[in-house]
Design a protein that fits this description.
Strand order of the largest sheet of chain B: 2-1-3-4
Largest sheet of chain B: 4 strands, parallel
Number of helices of chain B: 11
Number of strands of chain B: 8
CATH architecture of the largest domain in chain B: 3-Layer(aba) Sandwich
Helix content of chain A: 55-70%
Number of domains of chain A: 2
Number of strands of chain A: 0
Structural class of chain A: mainly alpha
Mean pLDDT of chain A: 92
Low-confidence stretches of chain B: none
Strand content of chain A: under 5%
Mean pLDDT of chain B: 96
Helix content of chain B: 40-55%
Radius of gyration of chain B: 18 Å
Order of helices and strands of chain A: HHHHHHHHHHHHHHHHHHHH
Shape of chain A: elongated
CATH class of the largest domain in chain B: Alpha Beta
Number of domains of chain B: 2
Low-confidence stretches of chain A: none
Strand content of chain B: 5-15%
Order of helices and strands of chain B: HEHHEHHEHEHEHEHEHEH
Radius of gyration of chain A: 28 Å
Oligomer: heterodimer
Distance between the termini of chain A: 96 Å
Distance between the termini of chain B: 8 Å
Shape of chain B: globular
């Protein structure tokens, strides 16, 4: 009874705290500007199916993709075992599904065990890759400190989860062998169990070990679940909505700013009434472009929470490859860090509380955003369809349209377009001269 | 052979209509190197008797560099003025040799009232070959030569056009050698996003040099592109590597015009 109560408390506490954090993250994401991404449901489901569930874009780099697939499939399939763990926990039973499922149960647990072994090796490989291989994209300055710890911590959690599963099943198998000289027939632990625990000749000790494995596993599941919202690892859940709400347009198409369209139409329309009342007199005019996270769209903010800091964007960014300060991954990390700060301070103080800081300036520098060639390599590379480019462009828009701040050569280029209809200083009257030159 | 370059205004005055508008773009109009690409496109259009016209002095910057630099006002002013002219001539189809104009006209003008079928010149040339209007049968100009193709970002990743330029290069009976970074993985030349018009930010290398090294690794004698800005960047890269004697940077339109002996 104590055990059942303890488990129920763990379950309620674990799920409850997780839900509270998810609620806060949702609240933060909704601080972003409006954007309609509800069209083309069929295409959206298809994108989600291929990119998130099918991990299509991971496979441009096959080796990490395969290792990642092992972890991913093991993670998804293990959730089935979790159903039994919850059932056992609440009923005080032992392997509740075994009798009703019969042979299928043995198959299922065996399948999970094989996947878990693969996942174990993949995790060890990932740990080695991060800490021994020193890949440039894992040693960059934006990963110093917490992000590197976060990445390693997640991998260690996974190893503990796997060790607990095999302790549980292995001790069970060893006990079965000890008192009835039989086996559950679980593919891996029928060998691992006797190998590690075969020397223990006490059913009580084996039962205790099995309990340690069981409790260790379920405790780690809740630790993991509640760690997610604080970690880059939240992508395992957000990859799904993030790919569903992907940009389905051609990557070259940048958004047209509606507020500007209205102004330009007024300027070009000779019969327009410049003193006409604005359409929504109560609405404060929005800032042009983005200075802070609240000027970005909710999709930009969802992108930020979805980023798992793999750095594929940065490793394909022409600016970063050639030593410039820009790193698309850092743009996403900065956006998330700033959003968490804004969300927390708004919850603590008031809805319109200003802390005097902003995304542009305090987190992202002008030098970074002016290094971008808008080549879309980062957007192409992202395995979960994050779009760092649209944030960069919105930051540029703020600088240029609100503060008239830009590299001096660009001021000249823009003046030329406005005066001559070309980015260079040529007379528009000479535009057709080429046709008569040799 | 002198070029026939009718303007939309002349066409209208003669009571004619053009099947396709050739959008020349600022680089194609003013940049000395890009003008050669423009002429190569016209030669092909003339040769195939395509009923085309240009806007001439009525054309203005598409607004792409302004938009990428963050100046939405200048972009939309340019776009609205151009759309006004294009709609005035009832333009239905546009071809352009500049991927930046291509992208802007195709993707960003519709919401502002400009709806046209926009194609890149490599797509139009491919079409001319497919319909038998242009033949490269028996041409020897580039036979067996190694040619590598640099994907312009605004043609490739931005609009998923990867095959048209490659199909054309294969028609030359040449050997198409891919760079290690190509198609969706292609590396930018460094000019996009208004970088063409400013100094690069501080770093340890210029992007066009990094990209030129990719091209040099293929041991090709020709670097083909489909963008006037990529052409400039790659040409500069080749000069930096002091390889301008051995390696040419040519637009796909120039390759085709040369092969067809136009």
């Amino acid at each position: 009874m104590i055990q059942i109560s303890a488990f129920a408390l763990l379950l309620i506490g674990g799920v409850g705290f997780f839900s509270w954090n998810v609620y806060k993250i949702r609240q933060n994401i909704l601080l972003g500007r409006k954007l309609d991404r509800t069209d083309n449901a069929a295409d959206r489901w298809k994108t989600m199916f291929l990119v998130a569930l099918g991990q299509k874009k991971m496979f441009t780099r096959p080796i990490p993709a395969l290792l990642h697939l092992c972890l991913y499939v093991a993670f998804v399939i293990t959730q089935i075992e979790l159903i039994e763990i919850v059932a056992d926990g609440l009923s005080g039973g032992h392997r509740s599904l075994k009798d009703s499922l019969g042979g299928f149960y043995t198959f299922m647990i065996s399948f999970i065990e094989i996947l878990s072994v693969l996942a174990f090796f993949a995790t060890v490989a990932f740990l080695a890759r991060r800490n021994m291989l020193k890949l440039p994209r894992f040693t960059m300055s934006e990963l110093k400190g917490w992000p590197t710890k976060d990445a390693n911590l997640i991998l260690i959690f996974e190893i503990i989860l796997l060790v607990c599963i095999f302790t549980m099943n292995g001790a069970d198998e060893a006990a079965q062998l000890l008192h009835s000289n039989s086996s559950y027939g679980f593919t891996v632990s029928q060998f691992l169990g006797p190998l590690f625990f075969g020397g223990i000749k006490s059913t009580e000790t084996l039962h205790l070990l099995e309990q340690i494995g069981w409790w260790g596993h379920i405790t780690m599941v809740f630790v993991f679940l509640n760690y997610l919202p604080y970690s880059k690892h939240f992508h395992i859940l957000l990859a799904f909505p993030n790919t569903y709400y992907s940009n389905l347009e051609k990557k070259g198409k940048f958004s047209n700013m509606e507020s500007v369209t209205n102004e330009v139409k007024l300027m070009l329309d000779p019969s327009a009434d410049p003193f006409a009342a604005p359409a929504n007199p109560d609405e404060a005019p929005q800032r042009f472009g983005a200075k802070d996270v609240t000027d970005l769209t909710w999709k930009n903010l969802l992108d930020a929470y979805t980023c798992t800091e793999c750095g594929r964007c940065t490793s394909s960014c022409p600016a970063n490859i050639t030593g410039k300060k820009l790193s698309p991954r850092k743009i996403m990390m900065d956006t998330r860090d700033r959003l968490m700060e804004v969300g927390d301070s708004q919850r603590k103080h008031a809805k319109d509380y200003q802390d005097g800081k902003s995304l542009l300036g305090d987190y992202i520098s002008e030098e970074e955003i002016w290094a971008c060639t808008s080549c879309n390599a980062c957007v192409q590379e992202c395995p979960v369809n994050i779009d760092p480019l649209s944030i960069i462009v919105d930051l540029r828009r703020y600088l240029v349209m609100e503060e008239s701040k830009m590299p001096t050569e660009l001021t000249g280029m823009l003046t030329n377009i406005e005066n001559n209809g070309a980015p260079w200083q040529f007379s528009p009257n000479d535009r057709l001269n080429w046709a008569n030159e040799d | 052979m002198s070029l026939k370059v009718p303007t939309m205004a002349e066409m209208l005055a003669n009571g004619e209509t053009a099947d396709v508008l050739f959008w020349v773009g600022c680089a194609g109009s003013f940049d000395d190197r890009a003008k050669k690409i423009t002429k190569a496109v016209v030669k092909i259009l003339n040769h195939c008797n395509v009923k085309f016209a240009v806007l001439g002095t009525e054309e203005s910057c598409s607004g792409d560099p302004a938009k990428r630099a963050g100046n939405e006002f200048t972009f939309q002013m340019q776009a609205m003025m151009n759309i006004h002219v294009l709609n005035g001539y009832e333009v239905k189809k546009i071809v352009t040799a500049c991927p930046h104009c291509f992208n802007t006209l195709k993707n960003e003008y519709p919401e502002l009232g400009g709806n046209y079928e926009v194609v890149h010149h490599t797509q139009l040339i491919q079409d001319l070959i497919n319909t038998g209007k242009l033949s490269l049968e028996g041409n020897q100009t580039f036979k067996g030569k190694k040619i590598t193709f640099h994907d312009p970002c605004y043609l490739g990743r931005a609009n998923d056009v990867y095959e048209a330029p490659r199909t054309l290069i294969e028609k030359l009976d040449a050997e198409l050698v891919e760079m290690k970074r190509c198609k969706t993985n292609g590396l930018c030349c460094g000019a996009g996003g208004a970088q063409m018009f400013k100094e690069a930010e501080k770093g340890n290398k210029e992007i066009n040099i990094e990209r030129t090294e990719d091209a040099l690794e293929t041991n090709s004698s020709i670097i083909a592109t489909g963008c006037p800005f990529c052409n400039t960047m790659m040409t500069d890269g080749i000069k930096h590597a002091e390889k301008e004697k051995e390696i040419q940077v040519l637009d796909v339109a120039e390759l085709i015009a040369n092969a067809a002996e136009l």
